[in-house]
Structure formats: structure tokens, C-alpha cells
Amino acid sequence: MKKSTFIKTVVGSFIMLLVLIPFLFFSSCQKDELIFNDESEDLKSGMIESTKLITYWGHEIFTREAGKPAIVKLKIGSNDLEHFERGFVLRLKNGEGKTNLVSSAIVKIDGKQIFGPSDFSKKVQYLSKKITGLTENSMLEVELRGSPGSFIDIWIEGKFLPLHAKRLEIGRALLEMQAPNVAELLPYYSDDIEYHDPIVDINGIQDMTAFLNQLIIGASPNLVTIVEDETLIDDIYSATWVMSGDFLGVPYQAKGISIFKFLPNSAQVYYQRDYYSEGDIMATIPGLSEAIGGFRMYYRCSVDPTYECPLPPSLPDTEKSLLISQDQISSNDQLTVARLLVQLSAENWTSALPFLDKNYEYHDPIVDIYGPDIMAVFLGRLFAGSSDLYTIVEDETLTDDIYMATWTMTGEFNGALISAPGMSIVKFVKGTTQSYYSRDYYTEGDIMLGVPGLSQAVLGFRDYYRSAVDPTYVRP
After folding, report:
1. What's the 3-state SS for the chain?
2. 406 pLDDT exceeds 90?
3. Which has the closest alpha carbon to 295: 442, 453, 418?
4. Confidence label for 35 from pLDDT (cuts 50, 70 and 90)
5. pLDDT (0 to 100) of residue 206
6. Angular region, 366: left φ>0, alpha ψ -120 to 50, beta rest
């Protein structure tokens, strides 16, 4: 939705206007049978620190309601288990400090009791137990007794398999690379590394080495990148990030998203693509800031219902577009809904509205939208031009209610051919198909190239950028 939204917005609107613990492995755990044991002291004081247990599931709060004790069942199994060692630790926190303590409870996994009433007899505040044998369909069952308002917090910790953990570490390190560690991180790229961003295309480790040296050590020695959301599914690592620093002495800040592909059964990266907006850098350069500022103004005037446009009104009848009757999609599958939100078009955008949470927010390089009602108006304005632009998802990942996908938008609008790559993130309310956040990453430059009077500014900036960092670039 975002991406299609974004490009359509940009194009349609603008052109129209102008874990885990190793000793959890017992020989009896080779079967898919749930096994649990009391947590030992060496596990608490030794291995937990050295093996970096992370949260696999939870935290989940269970509160004792008034009336007869109720049994709550939640699914804790998922396909994420394939990335973890078989041993886990189930942890339980009782109440908060010495208040709201549960006096009795029964906690089961797959029908087997892990904690019972006797475990709470002394009003303990913390409990933990080692478990193995979780499956993709494993269920947690909790029954609380005692005073209404008392509660427990339950979560499960585990340890990533070595390769999975290493890939996460490498993905973050390559994104957060700084001048002092360029040489240290270069071996994590394969000899035939392929790298792309909105301006540069690099092939081979020799050119990649020169590119990183020129970009990070030469042009941006104080560059700092911080990873925000990240996913790792099989051989694909994706992450959103924020970046700040100087480029050839000019301060700038930018948001972006990246995708890395690892060689099979390896910790080496053979493909990387960074998505960010050239406009964030252009906006800081005298002579180019006016071009990007004008483009963003026209874009927001066209599609952003919260923007006080300084131009005379010239919008099409968006109210009519909002009333178009379209088939609605009913789905409890996050993957299906996420694809819909990314592959929005003039024909299907109203089908996405029921999947927007009441606290939904949308962002792209130019607009920030808050609330499903404002989003509906935004989409109505965006697609009122009825272009034949379409978005096609390429690589995609979905884990822990977070979907990321790369895509390409192509088509023809008012005789202008459009082709623009991008990447999006969609976040869902836990365990539902209600999206509360989405952001499209793309560069306005790909759209501005088709706009008379703005293409020269983009070409000039790209020449300036490539001359500074691209070892393969020959100035025309």
C-alpha cells in the first residue's frame, strides 16, 4: 500500500499537477515430546550470560479477572523455532514487586503442567523451568486463581542456532559500519558481491572495497547508522535504519531500509541493496534544495489532506473516488494482507482499509499520515488520477508480525513511462491482520527524472555523488 501509494502519489499526483541454552539438550529430547526440568544454578549464573539467551515468545501478561477462574490458551509455536536450538527456558514473574501476587495458578504447555499451585504457595516472585520439544503447534495454557487484579508475566527465552545468530550479527555490523572497522568487515562480502542503492551499482569485491573506502572513510568519516527493526528469514536479512553524519562536509540525516542475501549455509553476503531518498541529502545542498522542496510541496498538495497547500486548489473530485464500490478482501493471513498493502492500485486500494488499525500511521519520504480516516482520504487523492501504475513484490519476509518486501513500480502515466524500485515495512498488531504502521522507502529522484525542469537537478546531484564515491564512474 505504501509503495504503490507512494509512487502513485509521487507520480500520479505530481505529474498530474505539472535462544536458549546448550545444556537443554538431553538425550531424551530427541523426540518431539515436551520435557521440562528445574533450572539449575550453573544455568542461571554461567551459560545464560555466555550464550546470549533472547526472548523467543512473550512477554505476555495474564490477569486474574473477577468470577470463576478462566483458562486462557495461546499459541507459542511458530516456524521461528527452526532458527533456535531445541532447549528453552520458560520464565514467570509474579505480580509487581510484592503487590498483585497470584496465590495459585496452573501453567501448562501442550497439556503438560509446568507450574502448579504448590509453586506459588510461598508467594514467589519469579519462577523458571527448562523445556524442550516445542513444536510449531505448541500451546500455552494458563489458569489463574486468587484475588482479582493479581497477574503474572510469562515469556520464553532461547538461543539462536549459530549460523542464524552470526548472520544477524553480520547484517547489523555491515549496516552500522563506521570508518574504523571498514577493513575488518569487508571479508563478510563475497568476491562477487553485488551492491545497489538509488544512485550506485557496484559489482565485485574490488569495486566494493573502493566504494566503501571512498564513501565512509573519504566522504563521510563521521557517518553513524543505527538499526531499528530487523528480520532474518532463511538467507535474507532486512532492516530499517536511521543515518546521520556529513557528506563532503554537508550535514544530513536520512531514514532507510536494506536487504542482504547470504550465500547458502554461509555468513558471507553476496547481495545488498539500500533504499533511501536522495531528497534527504539534496535538501541540504544549496541550489538543489529548491528543486526537492518544490517537488515535495506539489506532492503534498496533491495527496496530503493535512497539508496547508500554498498553491491554488486544483485537486480532482476525491469524494467520488472514495465512494467507488470494490470487492473487499477477507483474510486472517498476515502475508496476504501485507502484500495487499504494498501492492495497492487504483482497483484495490479500498479493500485495504478494513485492515488498518485505529492507531494506524503511514510514512514515506514526503508525507506522514496518522489514522485510518486520513489514510482513506490520502489514498483517494492518490489514486484519483487512475493511472495504470502497478507494484510487484519481489523478495519478502514475515516474522514476529513484521513484514518487509522489495518491489518495483512500473507503468505509464499520461504518456510517461515509470519504473521505480523500493522497499516497505508493514507492522501488525500482535497475532492479527490489523496493521498499525507502514513505511515506504524509495527515492523521489526516480520520479523527478520524468518531470521537466526537475530532471536536471537529479542528474546533477547523481553526478556529484557518484564522482565522490563510485570507483567505476566516468564523468561525462
Report:
1. CHHHHHHHHHHHHHHHHCCCCHHHCCHHHHCCCCEEEECCHHHHHHHHHHHCCEEEEEEEEEECCCCCCCEEEEECCCHHHHHEEEEEEEEEEECECCECCCCEEEEEECCEEEECHHHHCCCCCEEEEEEECCCCCCEEEEEEECCCCCEEEEEEEEEECHHHHHHHHHHHHHHCCCHHHHHHHHHHEEEEEEEECCCCEEECHHHHHHHHHHHHHHHCCCCEEEEEEEEEECCEEEEEEEEEEEECCEEEEEEEEEEEEECCCCCCEEEEEEEECHHHHHCCCCCCHHHHHHHHHHHHHHHCCCCCCCCCCCCCCHHHHHCCCCCCCCCCCHHHHHHHHHCCCCCCHHHHHHHEEEEEEEECCCCEEECHHHHHHHHHHHHCCCCCCEEEEEEEEEECCEEEEEEEEEEEECCEEEEEEEEEEEEECCCCCCEEEEEEECCCHHHHCCCCCCHHHHHHHHHHHHHHHCCCCCCC
2. yes
3. 453
4. low
5. 97
6. alpha
Counting residues of the chain whose pLDDT is more than 90, the rounded percentage is: 63
Instruction: State the pLDDT confidence band at 18, using cuts at 50, 70 and 90.
Output: very low
Q: Is-contact 300 365, C-beta < 8 A?
A: no
According to DSSP, the β-strands at 139-145 and 104-109 are antiparallel
d(CA 50, CA 428) in angstroms, rounded, equals: 33
- State mean pLDDT over 348-363: 95
Q: Which grid cell is 336?
A: 496476504
pLDDT of the residue at 314: 56
35 - beta bridge partners?
132
For residue 123, what pLDDT band results from cuts at 50, 70 and 90?
Answer: confident
Cα–Cα distance between 132 and 271 in angstroms, integer?
36
What is this structure's pTM?
A: 0.75
Q: What is the pLDDT of residues 150-208, one digit of tens each?
A: 999 999 999 988 999 999 999 999 999 999 999 999 999 999 999 999 999 999 999 99
Cell of 251: 550535514
Contact 152, 144 (CB under 8 A): yes
Instruction: Provide the angle, in degrees to the nearest 10, between the axes of the packed helices 289-303 and 455-469.
Output: 130
In one-letter notation, the amino acid at residue 67 is: G
Is the alpha carbon torsion for 418, 423, 427, 432 positive or negative? positive
pLDDT tens string 292-309:
998 899 888 888 899 999
CA distances from 168 to 189, 221, 332, 385 (A): 14, 25, 29, 43
Residue where the block lists cell 544549496: 286
